[in-house]
Fold:
Amino acid sequence: MDQTQDLFFMNVALEEAKLGASEGGIPIGSVLVIDGKIVGRGHNQRVQQGDPILHGEMDCFKNAGRLSAKDYAKATIYSTLSPCDMCSGAILLYKIPRVVMAENETFKGAEDYMRSRGLEVINLDLNEAKQLMREFISKNPQLWNEDIAE
Amino acid sequence: MDQTQDLFFMNVALEEAKLGASEGGIPIGSVLVIDGKIVGRGHNQRVQQGDPILHGEMDCFKNAGRLSAKDYAKATIYSTLSPCDMCSGAILLYKIPRVVMAENETFKGAEDYMRSRGLEVINLDLNEAKQLMREFISKNPQLWNEDIAE
Structure:
């Protein structure tokens, strides 16, 4: 997949993140793509649903519904932030071969571990995503700490 | 915590697993315990809710709701089966220091990785849990494969 396509799908993940922000939630979004088509999208639901497991990537997997191992094996997951241990674990369980993040300055998840397990992990290093998180964290430091158990 | 207590709480996790079986679901249950009290319990919801992220442990975390890092730091999570990459990742995210499983013969998850990250991981090796999974898998091999993306 070329970078134009990656930027296109990341833009959808950023839309999800902004939707989360507009709901008063933690602005992290995610998109699951198979064969060039979006099969799931979601955003962090800690505030909106009071749910500690619905990080952006998890909400995306949930919304994509039950898929076969064959489907997951062709997928790319996009996230506006470096996937944490939980989300990386879900990516590993479902053997998603390719992970694209918008940034890892705000938080660096289990990138090295995913790479050690053979996954392709790409960082697009987008200022827009960093800015979204910077604004959110400056206003909601406790909420952010809760989301990463700090 | 002594083994009598571990067996007591694991019995609750096994009740959750059996509840899942009675609903036609995958019979894996989990309990989250803090300061000797159950703060969350749950079971695999793939069939019941069509949800690919609600493994037993994840359903348990979800039902426990939003907790502080301070709470998670005192917790033990019980699972009737060795936690997979996703569930181990959630355990690592929330820095749960102690993991007790009923068995790992049916499936061995990320036990070694959790230990390498400093967690105490205990296997009670209970025949009742193995029997539950044996019966389920013999009748529903495809469903089980879907749950672990095989």
User: Anything to note?
Assistant: Chain B touches chain A through 33 residues (CB under 8 Å). Chain B has a mean pLDDT of 97. Residues 58 and 87 of chain B are 6 Å apart (CA to CA).
